[in-house]
Amino acid sequence: MSTKLTIGLFGFGVVGQGLNDIIRTKDLNLEIKKIAIKNPEKKRTLPEVLFTTDSSIILNDPEINTIVELINDADAAYYIVKTALQNGKNVVSANKKMIAEHLEELLHLQEQYGTSLLYEGAVCGSIPIIRNLEEYYDNELLYSIRGIFNGSSNYILSKTFNDNLDYPTALKQAQDLGFAESDPILDVGGFDAKSKLVIAVSHAYGVLTNPDDVFNMGIQNISPKDIQYAKEKNFKIKLVPTALEFGERQVVLYVIPRMIKPDDFLFNVENEYNGVIVQAAFADQQFFFGKGAGGHPTGSAVLSDIAALRYDYKYEYKKYRSNNAYVQSNDYLLTVYLRYTDDSILTKLNIKEVTERFYSPDFSYVIGKVTLKNLMTHAAELDNADTFVAEIGSGSQK
């Protein structure tokens, strides 16, 4: 028998309304008792009596046994989720930044208070990657996980490659369609994808890491010259978060644009869609594809978590709790394309094994190998309009 869920919902934006739309089509053993909102003046599609601006009414209501947190503010989300777990309430959240930054603490809070926190909707929208990593791959040796985790940046890159739009025009179009914020740096800078990668890796490899310790380089400095180079070589450029096993139970994590070949599953993942490739020792290569954002796609993932709570489902974090957990390392060599103007960056990065180099007054690039550690050390210098870095191939061990 399933447990009846009485839900307190935080946030009634795109995902909150999408979730409500889906719930109305289902006959489930649950009800939404109260919804916390920030703006009481905004017109809503549900009766006014359901809404409140006082979060404590929901968090302290003994009849509410489940909190669904769907707000943008990571700090406020952290307070809501932490308080709910401490009050003995199970939680579903889609706030990837908050979860990535506080995952270890939230894991221990679940243990301490006997509660459950689920967050499928926080990583890749409608794609059920967390539950698969947690359950299907729990006894698998995973060689790598990589993919397209951010629909905003992928939409922009699709428009630059397929419709020949320049970057500013593609970005403006993404903003007009609601795919990108007015300040898009969290998306195009790779920060959003990094948060999702950190969460996925906790289930894939049992590694709990601080997002600040993971390298991310975005697409905001891409130029027509970079796009021209990629097209001439029959590549597409995608922003790809990557986690892979190497050496003696070491795992490397990074987010960087990547030159993708036509035989790669990610080559044809376009617009706001996401794709995840899992490479496993026994299951081999598997590809997950779906919408990475939007009210109904993300709402469906949130509802899946809510439905699982009816049967007391919890993440077990099996690989984290095992004695064979992985260790994060940055001693890893990547093969990269580097566009630059200042020759000194080549010395600073200590580029090795150069296989291609081109000079001209307005465009210079080099293809060679560089350690992830050096990329992290000089990340601030690489983040300017005169420089663009993209990985080519899968890298190699140092």
Helices and strands in order, then pairings?
Blueprint lengths: L4 E6 L3 H11 L5 E7 L14 E2 L2 H5 L6 E4 L4 H13 L3 E4 L2 H18 L3 E2 L10 H8 L5 E7 L2 H12 L4 H10 L8 H4 L2 H14 L10 E2 L7 H9 L3 E11 L3 E11 L12 E8 L3 E8 L3 H15 L8 H4 L5 E2 L3 E9 L3 H6 L2 E7 L5 E8 H6 L1 H4 L5 E5 L3 E2 L1
Name the descriptors.
twelve-stranded mixed β-sheet, globular, 26% strand, alpha/beta, six-stranded parallel β-sheet, 18 strands, 398 residues
Helix content: 25-40%
> In percent terms, what proportion of residues is strand?
25-35%
Largest sheet report: 12 strands, mixed
The counted number of beta strands is: 18
Question: Which outline best applies?
Answer: globular
Class of secondary structure makeup: alpha/beta
Determine Rg (CA atoms, Å): 22 Å
Average residue-wise pLDDT: 93
Number of helical segments? 15
Please give the alpha-carbon distance between the first and last residues: 53 Å
Poorly predicted segments: none
Task: Describe the overall structure.
With 398 residues, the chain is α/β, with parallel strands linked by helices. The protein has 15 helices and 18 strands. It has helices at residues 14-24, 55-59, 74-86, 96-113, 129-136, 151-162, 167-176, 185-188, 191-204, 224-232, 295-309, 318-321, 344-349, 372-377, 379-382; strands spanning 5-10, 30-36, 51-52, 66-69, 90-93, 117-118, 142-148, 215-216, 236-246, 250-260, 273-280, 284-291, 327-328, 332-340, 352-358, 364-371, 388-392, 396-397. A hairpin with a 3-residue loop joins β9 and β10. α4 runs parallel beside α9.
